[in-house]
Design brief:
globular, 8 helices, alpha+beta, 4-stranded mixed β-sheet, paralog of FGE (formylglycine-generating enzyme)
């Protein structure tokens, strides 16, 4: 009996040694157990064991020109009483937004001209109408009883205005810019990873888009460090995938809630914010009326050489755009350079004044009613890739984009969204269906699904509109000399910008020490 126990013990030790050996052989350049499946025990990243790959993800990088905005809850809506002539469409309500990244400044003329330059190189020979459609409307500066022709001729293209915010861009053009930026940034990251060589001659359907590359419809020229394919039945080399951790999420316009949250900069009002030595307190001491802190004033308040200077670019009173000679109050007749004035607590410039900014939301006066408390947004449109009969994704179109289609009501309901019954949620719970009136755009309303929200106040607005809780609307296909935009990007996984895993963990070292 004793000998049997010894034999069994030796077998157990031998089996454990074999399993440990398998794990060790697969754990190249990683910690113990990192290269072993936590559900099967099979080695990962090993061609001999099937080649299932799991990337050692280093965390999401902060995109160039952007600031990290740590999410949280806040009271969304008007801070001061709304003007009597306005609808009560900005009611206070508590909501939560996730963390994200936001452009530190409005998109400048020089950056938008870079977009047009690329569009001309890629599409002008075959599709000049695409280039024409992307140009901002420079005639927005014209006014019947003002002489603004110098702005019409010079503002967008002259070098003097390189770093001034682009205007004359409508909501749809701003979204197209975001898509272009997504593709150019991800193309650069793929080239930087060595998977592709730069293609300066791409045009027509032979252009890099993130989606066409990921689904294998953009080949390009292989770079010096092609990714090894560990699939035993593979070709030995493969293109990068989302799972490799190289690609960044899409650039897009901010939602109204995200924009308002970022503009308020309430992280600056936390009396004991989290740092390397302590846990932050869940408290905000004051509510901001304006982006630059808990004070209801447009002037710099500290007792130094800057005391009394304007902290935003706006119209102080009728006919007063910049003060008097020898005492200019905001030092800007119309717009100012995008890095003018002080940034707020999130490092964002001109979240009040200079130019209004497009947000992603479709406008409804009742958007505060039945609003989702987590990541509120109106304007969802559910889409999906088009597939061919053999189950493969439809071929890219003539300008290199993967086609998609709107989901039908039947497809939406099949996914369990019985409360919507449609793929376009712009009018969901907007109150129209309960009204005794029939609304017709242009007859008794100026609101439809193309009506979009803009926020922030501009160089031509009074100070009232600089409060982040105020909101206005205009048709998305229109543009003005007072509306610009900036982009945001989602923060993936953990909301902590220091690359700490999500959730409170008591079993691993924490960033702060109690």
């Amino acid at each position: 009996m004793k000998r049997k126990l010894i034999v069994i013990g030796l077998l157990c030790i031998g089996t454990a040694t074999i399993l440990t050996s398998c794990s060790s052989s697969a754990s190249h350049k990683k910690g113990k157990g990192d290269n072993v499946s936590q559900v099967t025990g099979w080695p990962l990243n090993d061609k001999r064991w099937g080649g299932y790959e799991v990337t050692d993800y280093k965390g999401q990088q902060t995109p160039i020109g952007m600031s990290y905005v740590q999410g949280g809850r806040f009271t969304m809506g008007a801070v001061d009483d709304e003007m009597p002539t306005l609808e009560n469409n900005s009611v206070r309500r508590t909501v939560t937004v996730s963390s994200f990244y936001m452009d530190q400044t409005e998109v400048a003329n020089v950056s938008y001209r870079e977009y047009l330059y690329w569009m001309e190189r890629a599409y002008f020979n075959d599709y000049p109408e695409l280039v024409t459609a992307a140009w901002p409307d420079q005639t927005v500066w014209r006014s019947a009883l003002a002489y603004n022709e110098p702005y019409v001729k010079n503002y967008f293209q002259a070098a003097a205005y390189n770093n001034y915010p682009v205007v004359g861009v409508n909501w749809y053009q701003a979204n197209d810019f975001c898509q272009w930026r997504t593709d150019r940034v991800n193309e650069f990251l793929v080239i930087q990873a060595g998977a592709l060589k730069p293609n300066k001659d791409q045009s027509g359907e032979d252009v890099f888009t993130t989606k066409s590359y990921i689904v294998g419809q953009y080949q390009g020229t292989a770079g010096p460090r092609e990714h090894h394919d560990l699939d035993p039945n593979g070709s030995g080399k493969r293109q990068l995938k989302l799972q490799d951790g190289v690609f960044l999420p899409d650039y897009r316009l901010p939602t109204e809630a995200e924009w308002e949250y970022a503009a308020l900069g309430l992280i600056g009002n936390n009396p004991t914010p989290e740092n390397k030595r302590r846990r932050g307190e869940e408290v905000v001491t004051d509510r901001n009326t304006l982006p630059w802190g808990p004070k209801n004033t447009t002037r710099y308040g500290l007792h130094n050489q800057y005391q009394g200077e304007f902290e935003g670019n706006f119209m102080r009173a009728k006919g007063d755009a910049m003060g008097v000679a020898g005492g200019l109050n905001d030092n800007a007749d119309a717009t100012a350079p995008v890095r003018s004035f002080l940034p707020n607590a999130f490092g964002l410039y001109n979240m009040a004044g200079n130019v209004n900014e497009w947000v992603m939301d479709t406008y409804r006066p009742s958007s505060h009613e039945d609003v989702d408390e987590f990541r509120p947004f109106r304007g969802n449109i559910y889409t999906k890739y088009k597939y061919q009969e053999d189950g493969t994704i439809e071929e890219k179109d003539s300008i290199g984009h993967i086609p998609y289609e709107y989901m039908t009501p039947a497809q939406v309901m099949a996914n369990g969204r019985y409360e919507t019954r449609t793929g376009d949620l712009s009018s969901y719970k907007d109150g129209d269906s309960l009204s005794q009136f029939t609304y017709a755009y242009g007859a008794n309303t100026l609101v439809n699904d193309s009506t979009k929200v803009y926020k922030g106040g501009s160089w031509h607005d009074r100070a009232y509109w600089m409060s982040p809780g105020t909101r206005r609307y205009i048709q998305g296909n229109l543009s003005t000399c007072t509306i610009g935009f900036r982009c945001v990007m989602d923060r993936m996984a953990s909301p902590d910008g220091d690359e700490q895993p999500g959730g409170n963990s008591f079993g691993r070292q924490k960033r702060h020490k109690r």
